[in-house]
């Protein structure tokens, strides 16, 4: 059966619609509750995992490197849940990493920007004008981050199958639209789409394994065959390629590993000035 992924400008609004959609479809709801298990598995703070999803810019508590690491852990857990099918996933940034899987209905819930600014101003005890500026800055930062990490702008409407604005559509009507849309044969699983999801899940598991030693590595999977890109200095090439292959080849589901080594010119330049 299909998978419904719902993302939203405002987490709480998206959560309400996702839970109602799951109930209407008889699907399981997969939300931020799974972060507790991720936190326990990797001995992390659950709050930091939420921040990795929500915070648009690095903070004193979280560097870009740490955020990348936390997102890798989240991605592994979410894709593992998606293999079960018959789920509604929300609040876990899955819209950033399930592109290309045709039986995942990707939904974006839009909140009226003026209403959002008013609510933000009231919650944070500030003027509406200041709230508008902060929200605009946050949007821009998220666009930059999604493009740098996942190579696309998360506000691009072409990345979603369905966009629902709550400006004139109430939440119950939004649920009806989503449930009717997902019943289309276009969102039924096919061999190819199921393979795409399995490839993403395998790549996520491999990436997590490499994260500690080789955080810059990018992983692509194709039916058990892996292509791993890694940054490093030329003197490290043979040793790093061998180490990555040894790690990846021991993961269940992996048949073949090919490592593409990319020379890290920035690191070389930095070391030359020491």
Structural features, described:
- This protein is α/β, with parallel strands linked by helices and 274 residues long.
- It folds into two domains: 3-187, P-loop containing nucleotide triphosphate hydrolases (Rossmann fold), CATH 3.40.50; 213-272, Histidine-containing Protein, Chain: A (2-Layer Sandwich), CATH 3.30.1340.
- It is built from ten helices and eight strands.
- The strands form two sheets. Strands 2-3-1-4-5 form a five-stranded parallel β-sheet, sandwiched between helices. Strands 6-7-8 form a three-stranded mixed β-sheet.
- Helix 9 (237-249) links the parallel strand 7 and strand 8.
- Helix 3 packs across helix 4 (64-82), helix 4 packs antiparallel against helix 8 (191-211) and helix 5 (113-123) packs across helix 6 (128-150).
- The protein starts with a strand and ends with a helix.
- The mean pLDDT is 91.
What's the oligomerization state?
single chain
CATH H-tier superfamily of the largest domain: P-loop containing nucleotide triphosphate hydrolases
Number of domains: 2
Mean pLDDT across residues? 91
Shape: globular
Strand line-up across the major sheet: 2-3-1-4-5
CATH architecture title of the largest domain: 3-Layer(aba) Sandwich
Largest sheet: 5 strands, parallel
Which range best describes the helical content: under 10%, 10-25%, 25-40%, 40-55%, 55-70% or over 70%? 40-55%
Give the gist of this structure:
The chain has 274 residues and is an alpha/beta fold. The chain contains ten helices and eight strands. The protein has two domains: 3-187, Rossmann fold (3-Layer(aba) Sandwich), CATH 3.40.50; 213-272, Histidine-containing Protein, Chain: A (2-Layer Sandwich), CATH 3.30.1340.
């Amino acid at each position: 059966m299909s998978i419904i992924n719902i993302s939203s400008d405002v987490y709480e609004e998206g959560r309400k619609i996702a839970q109602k959609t799951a109930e209407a479809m008889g699907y399981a709801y997969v939300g931020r509750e799974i972060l507790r298990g991720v936190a326990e598995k990797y001995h992390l703070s659950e709050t930091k995992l939420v921040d990795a999803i929500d915070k648009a810019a690095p903070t004193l508590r979280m560097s870009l490197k740490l955020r990348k690491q936390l997102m890798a852990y989240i991605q592994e857990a979410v894709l593992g849940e998606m293999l079960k099918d018959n789920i509604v996933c929300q609040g876990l940034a899955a819209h950033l990493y399930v592109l290309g899987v045709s039986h995942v209905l990707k939904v974006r819930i839009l909140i009226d920007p003026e209403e959002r600014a008013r609510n933000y101003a009231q919650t944070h005890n500030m003027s509406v004008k200041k709230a508008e500026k902060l929200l605009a800055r946050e949007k821009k930062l998220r666009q930059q981050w999604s493009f740098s990490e996942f190579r696309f702008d998360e506000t691009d409407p072409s990345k979603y199958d369905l966009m629902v604005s709550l400006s004139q559509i109430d939440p119950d009507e939004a649920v009806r639209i989503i449930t009717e849309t997902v019943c289309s044969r276009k969102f039924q699983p096919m061999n190819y789409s199921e393979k795409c999801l399995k490839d993403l899940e395998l790549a996520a598991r491999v990436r997590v394994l490499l994260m500690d030693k080789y955080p810059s590595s990018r992983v692509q999977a194709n039916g058990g065959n892996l292509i791993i890109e890694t940054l490093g200095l030329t003197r490290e090439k043979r040793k790093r390629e061998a180490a990555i292959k040894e790690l990846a080849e021991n993961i269940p589901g992996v048949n073949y590993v090919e490592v593409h080594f990319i020379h890290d010119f920035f690191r070389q330049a930095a070391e030359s000035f020491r």
